[in-house]
Design a protein that fits this description.
Layout: H1 2-28, H2 37-46, E1 61-68, E2 74-76, H3 93-105, H4 110-116, H5 121-126, E3 133-135, E4 148-156, E5 173-180
Parallel strand pairs: 3-5
Antiparallel strand pairs: 1-2, 1-4, 4-5
Helix pairs in contact: 1-2
């Protein structure tokens, strides 16, 4: 019985090693161990993330999109992929919403962020006289994001080593008001 269990685990370990090594080889590009297009395509279907998560800086600024509801409360407009609203990753709605959010952020310029920094979050929520950055609505571009007013919160992610000492650092937040119409 122990030999069967050992051989099963060894087989799973070897298959995992082969899969990971072939995925690395397929994602490298032109090199001495060139793979065919079919192999690269097969592994990009099996492992669509590839090794891209190693290239993103963990200190990039984070943008969060909130929708302003009619009763002047905020609701998160872009949920995480693993949330229950997205069937724990099986629904592609959050990926579509994130893509639409990045299209919206392409309309925002650096001077727009500077313009809104004289306002607080409460000012942006309660005042209808503060002009928002306007983004034109198109059914070809937007499927998940609806017409309406949104707040974008931008902040830096706190390094893991600093998280236990919140009194030693400040984490400034910036806010921006958007209108999709």
């Amino acid at each position: 019985m122990e030999i069967k269990r050992f051989s099963f685990y060894l087989t799973v370990l070897l298959l995992g090693f082969v899969l990971v090594s072939k995925a690395v080889q397929a994602s490298v590009g032109v090199n001495a161990t060139e793979t065919t297009f079919q192999e690269r395509y097969a592994f990009s279907v099996l492992l669509p993330e590839g090794w891209g998560f190693f290239t993103k800086s963990p200190r990039d600024e984070k943008n969060v999109l909130y929708r302003i509801m009619p009763d002047k409360t905020l609701e998160v407009a872009v949920h995480k992929n693993a949330d229950p609203e997205n069937l724990f990753g099986f629904s592609r709605r959050s990926r579509r919403t994130s893509m639409e959010f990045s299209r919206v952020m392409a309309h925002v310029k650096a001077k727009d962020w500077e313009k809104y920094q004289s306002y607080s979050l409460r000012d942006l929520l309660t005042s209808d006289t503060i002009a928002a950055v306007r983004v034109p609505y198109s059914t070809k571009q937007f499927n998940q994001l609806e017409k309406g007013t949104y707040i974008v919160k931008r902040y830096s992610i706190v390094p893991w080593a600093w998280a236990q000492y919140p009194e030693h650092y400040t984490n400034p937040e910036q806010y921006l008001k958007l209108t999709i119409n």
